[in-house]
C-alpha cells in the first residue's frame, strides 16, 4: 500500500538556558521587553510532522512518501533520511530558500520560547496525484504548507482516497468553512483534546455534528491514551506502559505513524489506535522526535504485552 505523508520537514534547533526566564523578565517593563539569554550551546534535531511520521513508519516496515518542501540547507537531513531508507522522491527542494526551522530556548523550569521560520514550507510541494491508485493509497494531511493542507484534502476526497486529517497547530489559520471543507470526506479526524475544542469552536460544530463530515474522530489524551468516536465502535483506550517519561515531544507523531501502520495492515480504527499508542510510547522514552528505535519483533511483543 502506498502511504502519502504531507506536512512539514524541519530542523529543531534547541538551546538550553541554564537559568529561569522569570528571573530576567520584569513584569512592569513587559511593554519595552529587550532580553538576551546566554545559552549552553545549540542542539540540532531532525523534525517536522511529515519527517517524524515517516521516520516511525519506516521503523514499522512501511515505505512512506513525504510530500513537503525543503531548502538549500537540507543536506544533513537528507543524509539522515537516506541512512534510514526514507524516500526523497516527493520532497521538493527550494534552492532559493532555507528548510523550515524551529528555534527553541528552554529554561530550567521547562518553559520554552520558540521562534518558527517556515521558509521553504511557504511553497507547495506540488505532488502529482495522477500516478497514485486510490484504492491502494492511504494518506495523512498533517500541519505544513497551508495550501497543500487544503488542496490535498480536497484531492483525496475527489479521488476517494482514505485520508487522516490532522490540522494540529495550524487550526487558527483556517476559517470554520475551510476547516469543514478539509474534514469533509476524511476517514479520520485526529487531534488532541485541546485542539479538538479549538476545531469545535472554529466550526461551530459539536463532536456528534463533526461525525457528519468524517467517519471517525480520534482524540489523543497524552498519558491517558486516546478516545475513538464513530457513533458505533466507540472506545477509550489506555496508553501503553512506558519505562520512563523522558520527553513527550514527538509522541503525537509517533501515534499517527502507528495508527497508519495499523490501518495499512487492515485493522479496525480502534485496533489501529492501539498500534499508535504502542509506537507513541517509544517516542516518550527518548529526547527528540526521531531518536527512538525498535525492531519489528520488539514492537509487536510490546503491543501484545499491552493490548492482548
Automatic annotation (TrEMBL):
Gene3D superfamilies: 3.40.1190.20. PANTHER family: RIBOKINASE, SUGAR KINASE. PROSITE patterns: PFKB_KINASES_1 (PS00583), PFKB_KINASES_2 (PS00584). This is PfkB domain protein. Residues 45-291 form the Carbohydrate kinase PfkB domain. The lineage of its organism: Bacteria, Pseudomonadati, Thermodesulfobacteriota, Desulfovibrionia, Desulfovibrionales. InterPro entries: Carboh/pur_kinase_PfkB_CS (IPR002173), PfkB_dom (IPR011611), Ribokinase-like (IPR029056). Coiled coil: none annotated. CDD domains: ribokinase_group_A. Signal peptide: none annotated. Pfam families: PfkB. Keywords: Kinase, Transferase.
Amino acid at each position: 500500500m502506498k502511504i502519502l505523508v504531507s506536512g512539514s520537514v524541519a530542523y529543531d534547533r534547541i538551546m538550553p538556558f541554564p537559568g529561569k526566564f522569570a528571573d530576567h523578565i520584569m513584569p512592569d517593563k513587559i511593554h519595552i521587553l529587550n532580553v538576551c539569554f546566554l545559552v549552553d550551546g545549540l542542539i540540532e534535531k531532525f523534525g517536522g510532522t511529515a519527517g517524524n511520521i515517516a521516520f516511525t513508519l519506516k521503523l514499522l516496515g512501511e515505505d512512506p512518501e513525504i510530500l513537503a518542501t525543503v531548502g538549500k540547507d537540507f543536506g544533513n537531513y537528507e543524509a539522515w533520511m537516506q541512512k534510514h531508507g526514507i524516500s526523497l522522491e516527493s520532497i521538493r527542494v527550494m534552492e532559493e530558500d532555507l528548510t523550515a526551522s524551529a528555534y527553541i530556548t528552554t529554561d530550567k523550569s521547562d518553559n520554552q520560547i520558540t521562534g518558527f521560520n517556515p521558509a521553504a514550507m511557504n511553497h507547495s510541494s506540488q505532488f502529482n496525484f495522477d500516478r497514485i491508485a486510490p484504492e491502494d493509497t492511504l494518506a495523512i494531511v498533517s500541519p505544513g504548507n497551508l495550501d497543500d493542507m487544503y488542496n490535498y484534502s480536497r484531492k483525496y476526497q475527489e479521488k476517494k482516497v482514505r485520508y487522516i486529517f490532522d490540522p494540529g497547530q495550524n487550526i487558527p489559520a483556517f476559517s470554520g468553512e475551510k476547516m469543514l471543507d478539509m474534514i469533509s470526506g476524511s476517514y479520520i479526524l485526529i487531534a488532541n483534546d485541546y485542539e479538538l475544542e479549538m476545531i469545535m469552536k472554529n466550526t461551530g460544530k459539536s463532536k456528534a455534528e463533526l461525525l457528519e463530515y468524517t467517519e471517525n474522530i480520534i482524540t489523543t489524551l497524552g498519558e491517558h491514551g486516546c478516545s475513538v468516536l464513530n457513533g458505533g465502535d466507540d472506545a477509550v483506550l489506555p496508553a501503553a506502559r512506558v519505562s520512563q517519561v523522558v520527553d513527550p515531544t514527538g509522541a503525537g507523531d509517533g501515534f499517527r505513524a502507528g495508527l497508519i501502520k495499523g490501518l495499512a495492515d487492515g485493522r479496525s480504527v480502534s485496533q489501529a489506535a492501539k498500534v499508535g499508542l504502542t509506537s507513541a510510547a517509544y517516542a516518550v522514552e527518548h529526547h527528540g522526535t526521531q531518536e527512538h528505535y525498535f525492531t519489528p519483533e520488539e514492537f509487536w511483543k510490546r503491543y501484545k504485552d499491552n493490548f492482548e
